Amino acid sequence: MRTVLLTLLLSISVLLTYGQKEFSSHTLRFFKNNIENKIKASEISILVDGNKIPGEKVGKLYQFPKIDSTKTFEFIVEINKVEFKAGPYKSWFLNSGSEITLGVLTKIDELLSVAEYNGMKKQEEDFELFSKRFFIINNMYTIDIKGYKKIKRLDFLIINPNQKGDGSYVLTQRIVDLKK
Q1: Segment 15-30, tens digit of pLDDT
Q2: Distance between CA atoms of 115 and 129, rounded to whole angstroms?
């Protein structure tokens, strides 16, 4: 009897959390260095309370059920055999929809630094900071890379939630391979 009640309570909890009819929509893009590549195979899901929920592809968008505002979640994105897991994020990142960009950098030496872009000299106060910050994806985003001269491959995931206001985004990076 206790097992039946626990199963019933768990089912009701899952239905209340995920059984909503409202969905959020997300776009998905993939870049290798500064070039957008076609997505040959992709899978995107979220992890909420240990439950993996796959995104439903509707046209060019991925949809997820909106989650309770007190919950956090993680994105799991796999595109063209590159997998990335990032988070936890607050529920509004998911519920408002977002632009998701997964990228691979293998030509870090060719990236334009913010210091170089602004014509900064080595003696300037913030040169050290801005010489490690690079423009990526058609100069729309910047990424800080410590020890960039030693890195052979770096993967990144950008979550840009649909929002009104400041247009902030989250960028998570992972060093995959170092130069020998």
Answers
A1: 555 554 589 999 988 8
A2: 8
Closest CA to 63 of 90, 26, 101: 26
Phi, psi of 114 (to 5 degrees): -65, -35
For the chain, the first-to-last Cα distance in angstroms comes to 62
The pTM score is 0.78
Neighbours of 53 (CB within 10 A): 17
Give me the DSSP letters along the chain.
-HHHHHHHHHHHHHHHHH--S-EEEEEEEEEETTEE---SSEEEEEEETTEEEEPEEETTEEEEE---TT-EEEEEEEETTEEEEEEEEEHHHHHT-EEEEEEEES-GGGSPBHHHHTT--TTSTTHHHHTTEEEETTTTEEEE-TTGGGEEEEEEEEEEE--SSS---EEEEEEEEE--
Which residues are CB-neighbours of 96 under 8 A, at least 6 positions away?
Answer: 24, 161, 162, 163
Top pLDDT among 164 and 124 is at 124
Give the count of beta carbons closer than 10 Å to the beta carbon of residue 98: 25
What's the CA gap between 172 and 93, in Å, rounded? 14
Torsion over CA of 105, 108, 112 and 114, rounded to 10 degrees?
90
